What does this fold into?
Amino acid sequence: MASVDPLSIGRDRKIRGLIEFSADLLPKLPTSHDSSSTDTLLADLNHHITTVNAISQKPGTVSPEVAEDLKEAGRGLWNECIREKRKRNDVLASPSRSKLLVRTRLFSFLVNVFARESLRGRKGSMEDDAVAIINQGLMLAKICINESDLDAARLGLGKVTKYIDKLRQLDAENHIGPGHRLNIEAEYLTMRCALSSKEDRLDVAEHMYTKADDLLRYLDPFSAEQLADTLQDIGTNLSGKGDHEMALKWLRRAHALINGQELERLSTEGLEIRMSIHHDLIQTLLATRSPERVQEADDLVSPCNVDVAAAAQSLMWKKLDASYAKREYNVAELWCRVALHLIFSSTGEVSQGKFARRLILCAIARSDADAAKSTFDTLPTAIQNDQLTRYLMFKVSLISCDHDLSRQCVEFLSKSSEKAKSRDILYACVREAQQLGDKLCTLEALKAVTETFTADSSTAAAANLPSVLRCAIRLVHIIETQDTQGADQASVLIQDTCDVFEKAAEHAKSDPRGENGSKVFTVPELEWFRKNAYNVGVTKCHV
It folds into this structure.
């Protein structure tokens, strides 16, 4: 009878215990919020972290089936942590709850590494496993550092270090390519910088950055974004401790790295990181209270050269236009806000107005009237008084049922010196109000249209005058027949009717001509106004 190795039996029992614990922990993660339940789970979790770390360092075999079960268990826990993170309740989470999720990620990472090492030997899998473990480990390290769980970060980076060394020894060009390998090494060294900084070992952090410096120039934009974010975290942390000089060193590094990327290749998150770094660098420069540093901060916020700013805004317009076409309005808004930054103000109000109006359009597309109004209120007067801006604000008034705003917009347009352009925009306002069934706004827009007709109006425009006046009178009558009108509104409508008839009489006396010199107010037109004026007068004489 074959002898049974007690060590092997004990090892197998512990591995089965890891799988069973993972299955037990998975459904408890979403519901464990009170301190008593999280503290109990944390104690069990730390015990199993110690177990899996110890087992993985001792020689032994694991069957492929068990290894796959381990791998699946680790993946399930990792994905559950991601789902919990996406619930965006981190601010309300207790410290023990946050630590539970961080430690769960550490446990799932260690289980995954152990499973992959147990499955090693399959053809072509060694490089893939190394890259997968490194990427997951670096993500884990960043989370642990942000949550100040430095023990977990050290343990995770310890595993990554081993695989970084292996990756250097592998001829993996057919799998990841040398460019990808440089990105991974640079990210690893930067994460070591972040950990050393958190440990207040700035000499080690500086040493790690020196090793990474030569690799940074080869980074792709995505990797550059992530590393710039990490360098910014180091600088911001130092600034928070009052070490502004050292903070400036790291923030300048972050600033140089993100600014070294082509703007159009940065992601939405990358643009946010870029703006955040710019802001933190300026704040830290000002915090030093040094005249030279204050001047440097002033230079950073000074407008760009016109040609540079125009070129940058041209690229931004292409990016936001593509996002807007895909209905990615939040992304388009971000591009607009970047383009409207003070640093690009040298391009002038025409360019700023274009981006500002697109920002309002994004708010309209999201039916967010408050955001649109807030944007409008922050604009320079010249952009506010642009006819297209007022047209957009009329559309905002429709989605917010703000009749005062709609009246202000059409009154402004009717008084514009560019009568022909204003008239076309007011026709568009009439159409917008009609489509939403807002009769009062439609009437206000029609009344404003009538104000744009003068003796100098073109013959083509003058030909439409009688029909515009008739539409306004008919619309007043329709509104009057609605039971919802109060006494004040009824009085206003009566005055509107009188004003429109008086305007018709004034224009008829001036005898405007249409194309080919034909009369605009023909005999049938005059007869219509005469009869309806009489009928309205008779029906309203008691009022």
The mean pLDDT is 82. The radius of gyration is 35 Å. Residues 228-301 form one domain.
